[in-house]
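U., I forgot to send this yesterday:
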Amino acid sequence: MLTQRYDKKLKTVLNDIIKVAASVFLGAVILYWTYRDFDLSKLDYVLKNEVNWGWMLFSLPFGVLAQMFRGWRWKQTLEPLGEHPLERHCVNSIFVSYAANLLIPRVGELSRCGILKKYDGVSFTKSLGTVVTERIIDSLCILFITGITLLTQMAVFTVFFKETGTDLNSITARFAPIHYLILGVSLLAILILVFLLLRKLSFFTKVKEKFQNLCAGILSLKNVENKPLFAFHTAGIWISYILHFSLTLYAFPFTENLGFIASLVIFVVGSIAVIVPTPNGAGPWHFAVITMLVLYGVGEEEAGIFALLVHSIQTLLIVVLGVWGLIVLALDKKKN
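Result:
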């Protein structure tokens, strides 16, 4: 029994190591490919002489606010399920989850649920269900922002898709009939697999109960008491995200005149790029932001420096908040 348990833990650790290594490797490859022809000798000069640190520092509180709004909103979605964690635990668990995602992409969602389970006794599966709800709402928000941005800046997006080979014509041109067949068979196989898994779940009471808790968490939104406050928190998250990025444009002489609409376009493209599972979107985010800045007339070297500095500073903020969250949670545990 002990051997089996040890083997299981070892397998879990090895899987985590593989995930981290794969994520870091992917990000490193994309970063290298993006910056392979860059002359970054100007980086030190820009850092010391051209960065307006007033604007850069002004952008940072909005990065903190975005995470705090998320923590406050999360507490709201848990309350209809009979779960009442402390507000500071919700916020600090968000801080820790963002930092955890730097190590293993997407593990933060599990870590914050584990924190509330440990500190407030919140059902893990119920809280995970609310995280799924959050992801759905956030996806709708980014789709809404993207839709508005597309309508106002269609010409820029058209050029971007052509430059990166991601427009529909470029994609379909690479598809032979066999590719469509493989895609159709794959989708059918996924649907069949999901159906069989759902059927299998119904035979196991314990798993079925967890599945029901998960569904309850997902559906918790309809029972949120103060829906205007929920909407305010959601708007606060995305306005803070946008300002967290947009204000950094004013910190550099080569981006300060781009304007809000341009910053919104770059923000949207960067947000889509971070879907690729690398630490804090490193690599894909840089490539997307550099490409968009160049389309707006910024020099390629300057665009590369902007992306490198902004991403590094914002990542450092996530690390600091994660450490802060762990310290506060540890002190809370010591008090109790």
